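2024-03-11 09:14:02 INFO worker-7 job=invfold-0412 stage=load source=structure_tokens
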């Protein structure tokens, strides 16, 4: 049995660009035949460049029924492309709104009442934006407890700051004991702020589950570690993402607290040195794998709240 199609014959080829995309039919012209294989044809896609010419093994006869099928598939493909473009535009608008909200939050968190201002690098802003997007748009949650934790990050910063040429080294601008006091204060401040100020609405159910293990005394922010009966603080549960959120909000959280000129300058130095340290060690402290999709049960409960 010879070839079904002859050189010069018109036919159609079925093609799919991706697994989730609809099939489309292209009109082709048979240019030559394979002498050894009776099912191989060298074709030219009508209206396309010669660089797309290729060998194929499956051709659809050029019939009225096939032409009608092609028109039907073309309409489906156009609708698919329209939906893809619309989804991309929607995601783009959502990202723009998210970025605007984040920028507005950062702007609102910079009051001039005490002279405290926090300046984030582009790297840290990107981390915060991706965190915002993962939680609020993609409906994901950070795995808790986070490793390294807030407490670990700040402890490692103290060690880093006392190295040669560090902020708290013998030639540095801040005494080591002063930096330790500030870091201890930040840890306590974090534990008091995490629930009321540092969570997105979508995370609050997760936080409530953690708080169920907190002692009844509302002023006691220590969590019992059920595994070894040691007390575990919230700063050992949450990680760098929530710590960065606190840094953005520090100026507004400090609003009303008058700082002396020297105190403000020292606090500025330590806070921005911590931010530089986090940016430098971001590969250790930040990971996209720290997020996981919220469970169906979690999503159902959140929707009912």
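2024-03-11 09:14:09 INFO worker-7 stage=emit residues=305
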């Amino acid at each position: 049995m010879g070839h079904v199609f002859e050189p010069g014959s018109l036919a159609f080829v079925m093609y799919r660009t991706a697994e989730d995309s609809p099939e489309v039919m292209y009109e082709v012209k048979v240019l030559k035949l394979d002498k050894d294989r009776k099912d191989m044809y060298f074709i030219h896609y009508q209206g396309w460049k010669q660089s797309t010419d290729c060998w194929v093994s499956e051709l659809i006869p050029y019939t009225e029924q096939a032409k009608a099928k092609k028109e039907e598939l073309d309409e489906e493909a156009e609708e698919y492309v329209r939906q893809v473009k619309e989804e991309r535009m929607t995601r783009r608008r959502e990202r723009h709104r998210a970025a605007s909200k984040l920028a507005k939050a950062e702007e609102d968190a910079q009051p001039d009442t005490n002279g405290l201002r926090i300046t984030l690098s582009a790297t840290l802003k990107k981390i915060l934006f991706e965190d915002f997007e993962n939680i609020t748009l993609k409906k994901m949650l950070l795995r808790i407890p986070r490793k390294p934790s807030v407490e670990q990050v700040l402890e490692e910063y103290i060690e880093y700051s006392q190295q040669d040429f560090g902020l708290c080294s013998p030639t540095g601008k801040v005494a080591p004991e002063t930096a330790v006091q500030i870091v201890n204060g930040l840890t306590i401040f974090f534990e008091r702020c995490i629930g009321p100020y540092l969570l997105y609405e979508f995370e609050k159910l997760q936080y409530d589950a953690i708080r169920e293990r907190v002692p009844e005394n509302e002023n006691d922010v220590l969590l019992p570690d059920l595994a070894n009966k040691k007390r575990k603080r919230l700063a050992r549960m949450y990680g760098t993402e929530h710590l960065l959120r606190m840094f953005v909000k520090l100026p507004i959280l400090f609003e009303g607290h008058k700082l002396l000129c020297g105190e403000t300058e020292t606090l500025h130095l330590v806070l921005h040195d911590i931010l530089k340290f986090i940016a430098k060690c971001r590969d250790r402290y930040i990971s996209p794998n720290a997020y996981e999709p919220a469970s169906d049960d979690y999503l159902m409960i959140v929707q009912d709240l």
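2024-03-11 09:14:09 INFO worker-7 stage=report msg="DSSP finds nine helices and nine strands in the chain."
2024-03-11 09:14:10 INFO worker-7 job finished
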